[in-house]
Structure formats: structure tokens, C-alpha cells
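Recap slide: Lysosomal membrane ascorbate-dependent ferrireductase CYB561A3, sequence and predicted structure.
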Amino acid sequence: MAAPSDEEGAVGPRCHHRSSAMLDVPFLPFCAFLGTLGLLCVAMVGTWCQHWRGGFSLDGSSRTFNWHPVLMVTGMVVLYGAAALVYRVPNTWSGPKLPWKVLHGSLALGAFILTVLGLAAVFSFHNSQGTPNMYSLHSWMGLGTVLLFSCQWVAGFGAFLLPWAPTWLRALYKPIHVFFGSTILMLSVASCASGINEKLFFSLKNGTMQYKLLPAEAVFANTLGLLILIFGVLVVAALARPSWKRPDSDSPDSRQ
């Protein structure tokens, strides 16, 4: 068989370059789409709890529980996803790095605060109704994710924001921090999806609104779960894209 000519051999690289260029998406439009999708998830979980689950209250009833899905989706998925993407913004690639570190840590801290409030809401509801805590897979996975997130935030604060952390420690911990950042986000998405499913099983029981009959509430909540999953996958994809990663720098500011 004859060897391909130089012109024929160049077709493959040219086609690969052309297809790569076609698939290349600028970060800022992608980020705008992702932000819109995140806001849609928050709006939908709020609409679900307000329209079908009776609204919100602090009286220990099921309306107190309704704060739980809203705060968890807002904190552990949307706000946490925004924190994860801070270093993908091109404006962060030059100049002092410390302000972006503070923004990243602050967004993560805000997500953690909302998460704690969401946990307080569900524990308050369970205790007031005499319902046992921590008996389902959703509760185990959710609390485990929050505990892992807590360790991640404390370790990140100590390694990257405190001035006395040695450079070698930061270099050693950075890939671990990045790995667990994506892992926590996907665990959060899985916890939210299982929580939505569990709530539907508990709530849709009567003959006219059984879950298996797929009433409007089930369609709406299942769609919400799919959108949360898509949001999480897109954030992880953005984190893994090489062209969107902040270039490593050996400047003194990067070792601040």
C-alpha cells in the first residue's frame, strides 16, 4: 500500500483543527448561558415549593421544609458552581491574584452558609413532626457532601489565603483541591436529584396524583432535576477545558 502523500497526510490535522475550531466556544457567552441556567434552576425550585408545596414559613411545618431544597440548590449547586469558575474568567489571568482568591473563598463561604441554613430547615421540620433524621440515602449523601465541603473550605483557606503557608504545601495541595472541588459539585448535584425524587415519592400518593401517573408536579420537578444535572456537568466540563484554565505563574504574587 502506498504511503499517503504530504497533502493527503495534512488533511487529517486540517480537519481536526477545523472541527476543534467549530467546537470552540468563547468563555464569556458560555458563562452567561451557565448563569442563566443556574438562575432558572433557582427560580424553578422556588416555584415548585411555592406553587405545589404550599410556600414558605418558619413554623416547623412542611412550609419550613420548603426552605431546604431552595437553599441547597442555590448554595451547594449554583453558588458553589460560580465559585468554582472564578479562576476561568480571563480577567483573573493577569494582575494580583489575591482579590480573586478572596472572591473565590467568599462565594464558597456564602454557599456554605446557605447550606447550613438549608440543613437547619430540614432538621427543624423533622424534629417538629417527630420524623427520624438521617435514615435515607439522600440524607447520608447530602450530609457527607456538606462535611466534605467544610473540610475543603477550611483546607483551602489555610493553604491559599493564610500568608504563612509554604509554597511547596500549596503546590502539593492544589491538584487535590481542584479534584475535590469537582467531586463535591457532582455529589451536590446527585444529592439534589435524589432529594427531589424522594420528595415526590413522599408527596404524590393519592389516587389522582400518584407519582407513577406523572402529574404536572412530577414533570416540573423531574425537569428541574435534569436542569440541575446539566448545570453540574457543564461546570465540570468548563473546569476541565485546558484553554480556559488560568496559566500557571511563578510570580511572587501567585505565591502570596
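Confidence is low (pLDDT under 50) at residues 6-11, 15-22, 250-256.
The helical segments are 6-23, 27-51, 62-65, 67-84, 98-129, 137-161, 167-203, 216-240.
(End of recap.)
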